[in-house]
Amino acid sequence: MPSKDKTVALAKLLHRDCTQLLDLYTARESLMSNSVSESQLVSIPPLTSQLSPSEKICFLQAALRKCLHLLDKAITHEDAIFPERPEDEYSKQRKTVRERLNYLVSSTERLLVEGKRCDAEAKDLVDSGVFALKKWILQVLQDVLYWSNKTAETLQTLPALKAMKPTRRRRAAGKKEARKLRK
């Protein structure tokens, strides 16, 4: 079972790795990292104080899960359009980011109370053409960057997660207590 602190550390590591990937991508494609709109492709309800800690984790996990889906789709499109590109620093970093994002999705899922599941909305690629695809991939990477940072920030502000989970007692311990009560 991952702890909240380990999940925060993983989110920060993903954020750092994705920052490097974004730099490599913008340099490779001659794009400015601010050349797309400020809004995210992935959206969830605002993480206000009215939401419980478990609801916040649930929505963050949904956003990360949707980012993973979009990143997989971006990788598929990119590899289909540029199949002959040799493996370079960008492709290695892209693989690292994808693996870390997958692990962060799993890690946040294990923090959920009783397997709760939420959904996130995502805008899909609508324009056609190589340049539109490049801008969309840039936006996907920016979303991974945004949601990994938002996950780290939000988890750090939440109370201890152990208090949110129902406590489990081992069966043997329960039997010993029952025997003591009978005596």
From TrEMBL:
It comes from the Eukaryota. One of its GO terms (biological process) is ciliary neurotrophic factor-mediated signaling pathway. InterPro entries: 4_helix_cytokine-like_core (IPR009079), Ciliary_neurotrophic_fac_CNTF (IPR000151). GO terms for molecular function: ciliary neurotrophic factor receptor binding. This is Ciliary neurotrophic factor. It comes from Tachysurus vachellii (Darkbarbel catfish).
